[in-house]
């Protein structure tokens, strides 16, 4: 556990607070434990395979190499969290579903044709005297010509029309962190949705990143006010149906 007294912000914690301050409190202030979630675990498995795929030589980055990685990476995941063995009753079906997501990846990118410069890259910034901002980027590619592309894999489906901007916020925060630390404005942000084989792309501008920074500062200020007043209003939405804390949430009790 960190002894850093500063507020720690990441795109996911900011997302929690903006979606529902009560949820943010359960996760980031109270630090209540949450049991493993199978959708998230499937996401971890697919992310691990796509990460490790780039250990192979370019010519070997094929669908079969990736699919063949699944059983061993899953065994490692279960070894780290033994309760997963109980949660997955049909391992073949589980691996088949993960395999279908991995196969979809190959319809969207050609991993034999480029090098992944960084995978699981940690970016951080002393955002304000009392705020530390950080995040982990799935993949960051630097082209021979110097252009930077930031890529994030999602195992769900792409958002409906009109919600792309909200989805891109996470990548704009990564782009902001990279811009601040490396003094280079990323050229392309790319969200890869393996659930339905879609990609959302955006060419970030300095105005986009300044807007993301402004929005982060506003959220940080609101969180400090919530902490000060111990005020965490629940914000019921469709998310409640997936919220582990629903049984203790004041909005539902
Ligand atoms: S159940 Fe809904 S309102 Fe309550 S904490 Fe979860 S997301 Fe927020």
What would you note in describing this structure?
The protein is an alpha/beta fold. Helices cover 47% and strands 17% of the residues. It has helices at residues 11-19, 21-29, 38-53, 63-80, 83-87, 91-108, 164-182, 206-229; strands spanning 7-9, 118-128, 131-142, 148-154, 188-193, 198-202. Strands 1, 2, 3, 4, 5 and 6 form a six-stranded mixed β-sheet that branches. Helix 3 packs across helix 4, helix 3 (38-53) packs across helix 6 (91-108) and helix 7 packs across helix 8 (206-229). The longest helix is centred in the C-terminal third of the chain and has 24 residues, at 206-229. The protein starts with 6 loop residues before the first strand and ends in a 24-residue tail after the last helix. The structure holds iron/sulfur cluster (SF4). The site of iron/sulfur cluster has 14 residues, from helix 2.
């Amino acid at each position: 556990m960190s002894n850093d007294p500063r507020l720690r912000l990441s795109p996911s914690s900011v997302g929690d607070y903006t979606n529902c301050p009560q949820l943010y409190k359960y996760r980031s202030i109270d630090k209540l434990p949450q049991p493993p979630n199978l959708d998230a675990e499937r996401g971890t498995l697919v992310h691990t395979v796509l990460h490790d795929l780039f250990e192979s030589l370019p010519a070997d980055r094929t669908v079969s190499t990736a699919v063949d990685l699944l059983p061993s990476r899953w065994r490692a995941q279960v070894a780290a969290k033994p309760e997963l063995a109980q949660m997955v009753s049909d391992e073949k079906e589980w691996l088949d579903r993960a395999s279908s997501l991995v196969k979809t990846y190959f319809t969207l990118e050609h991993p034999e044709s480029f090098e992944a410069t960084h995978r699981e890259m940690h970016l951080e910034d002393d955002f304000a005297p009392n705020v530390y901002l950080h995040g982990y980027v799935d993949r960051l590619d630097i082209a021979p010509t110097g252009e930077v592309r930031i890529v994030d894999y999602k195992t769900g489906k792409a958002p409906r029309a009109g919600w792309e901007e909200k989805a891109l916020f996470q990548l704009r925060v990564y782009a902001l962190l990279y811009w601040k630390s490396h003094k280079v404005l990323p050229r392309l942000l790319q969200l890869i949705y393996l659930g339905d084989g879609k990609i959302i792309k955006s060419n970030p501008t300095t105005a986009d990143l300044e807007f993301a920074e402004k929005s982060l500062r506003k959220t940080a200020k609101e969180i400090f006010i919530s902490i000060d007043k111990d005020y965490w209003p629940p914000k019921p939405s469709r998310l409640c149906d997936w919220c582990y804390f629903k049984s203790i949430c004041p909005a539902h009790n």
